[in-house]
Amino acid sequence: MEFTREFPDDAACLDYLWRARYSSDGRHADCPECKQRRMFKRYETAQQRQSWSCTHCGHHLHPTAGTIFHKSSTALHLWFYAIYLITSTRCGISAKQLEREIGVGYKTAWRMFNLIRNSLMTETPAPLSGNVEMDETYVGGKPRAREIQAMARMGLGPMQAGQAAARAKKTTVFGMVERGGKVVARVVPSEFQASAFGHIEAHILPASHIFTDEAAAYSALARKGYAHRRIQHAARVYVDGDVHTQTIDGFWSLLKSGIRGVYHSVSAKWLQSYLDEYAWRYNHREHTERGTGQRRMPVGEAKFRLLLARAAAPLAV
Ligand SMILES: [Zn+2]
């Protein structure tokens, strides 16, 4: 798609919101005062966010009310373009890139970036079922030499000191994915065993088949009523028939290459936002690869339209 042809200015973006929210034909809408379908006219004022008014009773409808665009001093057109940029690239862009591309200050770019990500790209998928893989991984920076030395002074060998220092520096992430379905990823405490079952019970239907590695944390799965199979990674077995964790491994590599390529590193404070963004991308992957509806859409276009439709709906409060 050509973004600038479809959304050349603020008026075109506002018209999109008006049609998406209230008026499929752009002229008629249900008037909450008249309690029936009425003709509406665009109410021309000097205000930045214009409204439409009922030609019968004068009631105003505001297409941006309650959305992420509400009360923002940034032009609607720049908001739409930011959503386009974030969805039209496979791995996303950083707030810094957004600042350069749309020509706003860094604080504004950062705020827009987080509103788009935290309000539009977070969603809790329907419970996972069938064949579900789960695993934990560690995300974060490389340890410094003195941090490894500190571990070595505690009596660890060089290899173990390196691993322990890396572990201390990283944040633990727990992920669950249904094969052929959706993923849920959460930042968890480094001793995540205690919290893992809360996440498992919240997101996975009982009697699902769960595949994990041999970590002790998963031992209680069978007692909780799940069918549980383990792959012996320590014995260098990675696939044994349908027993493997390659689907969640695939998500981890997508996440980590994204963080390396786009963001370079991520602080623990923001990690859950990144997990949500990458889970959203993964969970809507069919909207990139095949397109939906009657025609095939190029990479990212369907994702853009999906996110734009969500942006047009008022935020839940
Ligand atoms: Zn009316």
Question: What class would the helix/strand composition place it in?
Answer: alpha+beta
Strand order of the largest sheet: 7-6-5-8-9
Average pLDDT figure: 87
The H/E string reads HHEEEEHHHEHHEEHEEEEHHHH
Instruction: Count all strands and give the number.
Output: 11
Question: For the terminal residues, how far apart are their CA atoms?
Answer: 33 Å
Portion in helices: 40-55%
Rounded Rg: 24 Å
Strand count, sense and barrel status of the largest sheet are:
5 strands, mixed
Count of DSSP-assigned helices: 12
Describe the structure.
The structure is a single chain. By secondary structure, the protein is an alpha+beta fold. The chain folds into 2 domains: 145 residues, no CATH class; 117 residues, Ribonuclease H-like superfamily/Ribonuclease H (Nucleotidyltransferase, domain 5). It is 42% helix and 17% strand. The protein contains 12 helices and 11 strands. Strands 7-6-5-8-9 form a 5-stranded mixed sheet, sandwiched between helices. A hairpin with a 4-residue loop joins strand 1 and strand 2. Helix 4 crosses helix 5, helix 6 crosses helix 7 and helix 9 packs across helix 10. The model has no long low-confidence stretch (mean pLDDT 87). The structure holds zinc ion.
Itemize the secondary structure elements and their pairings.
Layout: H1 3-6, H2 10-21, E1 28-31, E2 36-43, E3 51-54, E4 60-61, H3 76-88, H4 95-102, H5 106-120, E5 131-139, H6 145-153, H7 158-169, E6 171-178, E7 183-188, H8 193-203, E8 209-212, E9 227-230, E10 239-240, E11 243-244, H9 246-263, H10 268-283, H11 286-289, H12 301-312
This protein binds zinc ion (ZN).
